[in-house]
């Protein structure tokens, strides 16, 4: 009996540990806002994937589906995926390139709000509202130190714990950047946190400022995400 109890508790902890459930509170809910679906539309698929609900009081409840939700029986309507390194917002491809996992993956954006069979808004998960403007247009808006978040699908569970360095050339100006990865991802949909810790100041006549040190990690419960909506 005792052995069965331990087995049950172990199974329960395992299930809870792998449950992809997140909650949040919208920073700018609309007055008399209806309940909406939170959806992703992966490139290549002909239908959206629901990943949660936005309640009328502004509460966000995410319940990520199993990875099969991102697969189609129609080979012509499969989600487009590529090597894992291309799914990362920051990578060192071609320069001091680390051993990236050999799994297929893709970043899926935007995170959209859906109501009455149409898009009604886009969600920006950030720790500083100014990052929202940078995410919309990196070429003209400057980043700030803080964290933004992206949805990434991986075909198989994978781990990446390393760092790398790369160099960017803008006209006559050089940017040295480093990326520190602390990732343990499950098969299917994951939330990745990109924390900008340092920024290279650019000549504004050339381009916007560039992140020069970024930590890439799994989302933690204490991350303090601000969910900001841009409505259509």
Structural class: mainly beta
How many H/I helices? 3
User: Rough shape?
Assistant: globular
Which percent bin holds the helix content? 10-25%
The strands making up the biggest β-sheet line up spatially as 1-4-3-2-7-8-14
N/C terminus separation: 58 Å
Run of helices and strands: HEEEEEHEEEHEEEEEE
Q: Please tell me how large the radius of gyration is.
A: 19 Å
Number of strands: 14
Task: Describe the largest sheet.
Answer: 7 strands, antiparallel
Proportion of β residues?
A: over 45%
Contiguous runs where pLDDT drops below 50 for at least 5 residues: 1-19
Chain-averaged pLDDT? 88
Q: Which oligomerization state do the chains in this entry correspond to?
A: single chain
What attributes does this structure have?
single chain; 232 residues; disordered N terminus
Secondary structure topology:
Elements: H1 2-18, E1 21-25, E2 36-40, E3 49-54, E4 59-63, E5 82-83, H2 84-87, E6 104-108, E7 111-115, E8 118-126, H3 129-136, E9 146-154, E10 158-170, E11 173-185, E12 188-200, E13 210-218, E14 226-231
Parallel strand pairs: 11-13
Antiparallel strand pairs: 1-4, 2-3, 2-7, 3-4, 5-6, 6-9, 7-8, 8-14, 9-12, 10-11, 12-13
Fold and architecture overview:
The termini are far apart. Helices cover 12% and strands 45% of the residues. Residues 1-19 have low confidence and may be disordered. The chain is mainly beta and 232 residues long. The longest helix is centred in the first third of the chain and has 17 residues, at 2-18. The protein has helices at 2-18, 84-87, 129-136; strands at 21-25, 36-40, 49-54, 59-63, 82-83, 104-108, 111-115, 118-126, 146-154, 158-170, 173-185, 188-200, 210-218, 226-231. The protein has a seven-stranded antiparallel β-sheet with strand order 1-4-3-2-7-8-14. A seven-stranded mixed β-sheet has the order 5-6-9-12-13-11-10. Strand 7 (111-115) and strand 8 form a beta hairpin.
